[in-house]
Amino acid sequence: MGKVKDEQLFTLLRDFLLVYLPNQRKASSNTVKAYRTTLNQFLKYTAEQKNISVLSVTSGMVTYEMVNSYLDWLSAEKNAAPATRNNRLAAIRAFISYAAACRPEYISIASGLAAIGIQKNDRFAKVDYMSEEAVKTLLAEPDTRTEIGVRDQFLMIFLYDTGARIQEVLDVKICDIKVDRTPTVTLHGKGKKTRIVPLMKDTVKHLQNYMKVFHPGETWMSSEWLFYVERKGIRNAMCDDTARLRIQKYAASAREKCPDVPLNVHPHLWRHTRAMHLYQHGMDLTLISQWLGHKQLETTLIYAHADTEAKRKAITEAMASDPFLEAEPVNYTVSDEEILKRLYGL
């Protein structure tokens, strides 16, 4: 292992991620993970631009120009949306602000980064989602004669039915699921908030089949991860990169059969797609907002409360049959993209 050139920088990074965020800010593990991912990516980008190793990066390289270049690279090369770009900038600023509070020499760096502007969202940007025919085709791709095929198909079904963020799905443990009269799953969302969403009848059937294959003998009180990978006999929660790569694999083959399958199928697209389908089938936007776990919906919508059974009935009425079982191709027209865009957090 090489020698760290700027030991102070990496010590501050360690303390920021391991002490300050979890202990003082009380940040969730997912928030800490997001900050770590951003800072690692930025350090790697800086090292590549300077043609040096990551361990040779110094605080003097964290400049207005370098951060701006990194953000431009995200937009151009990674197709990052404005919200993603702004989140990355916020993470870097948060670390530098922490460093400046600990070490006065970082104050000038923080001042420079403050001049970087926030990128505004296009208010009329297109909301990406899949048609019902695309969903049907994609869910038919995994070979369910194999264990991996069973897992991958159920992962996509679970993403679609719950409308959950990928990290919320990967954080689900068996004990978070209830399969009694009203089947539900408890999702652990942003800011340590939880919400309970209903599971549809057909999803429960797929769940029970998945459990027989991947969790034989487990009870519903088990604290095992619902989706896991096993290495050397040790089970760990599946990571989002694994989920993304598996979904992209099936999307590539599904696209050959159905041109409606988008070029870029990512885990979050399932969330957009489910919410859009429910909206287009007449489900109330306020219920969709609650179901997605958003705090508020915008000016014309009021706060509303619906218990789990009411949500289940609303979803059932909105979609009598789920696309992954019986869907027919439908052409849709979105009447209010402004509200929908904000609903999805774009």
From TrEMBL:
Keyword line: DNA integration, DNA recombination, DNA-binding
Domain of life according to the entry: Bacteria
PROSITE patterns per the UniProt record, alphabetical: CB, TYR_RECOMBINASE
Entry's Gene Ontology molecular function annotations: DNA binding
Residue ranges of domain Core-binding (CB) in the record: 7-100
InterPro entries membership: CB, DNA_brk_join_enz, Integrase-like_cat_sf, Integrase_catalytic, Integrase_recombinase_N, Integrase_SAM-like_N, Tyrosine_recombinase_XerCD
GO biological process, alphabetically ordered: DNA integration; DNA recombination
Pfam family, one: Phage_int_SAM_1
Record domain Tyr recombinase: where: 125-316
SUPFAM superfamilies xref list: DNA breaking-rejoining enzymes
Function description: Site-specific tyrosine recombinase, which acts by catalyzing the cutting and rejoining of the recombining DNA molecules.
Family from the record: Belongs to the 'phage' integrase family.
Protein name stated in the entry: Tyrosine-type recombinase/integrase
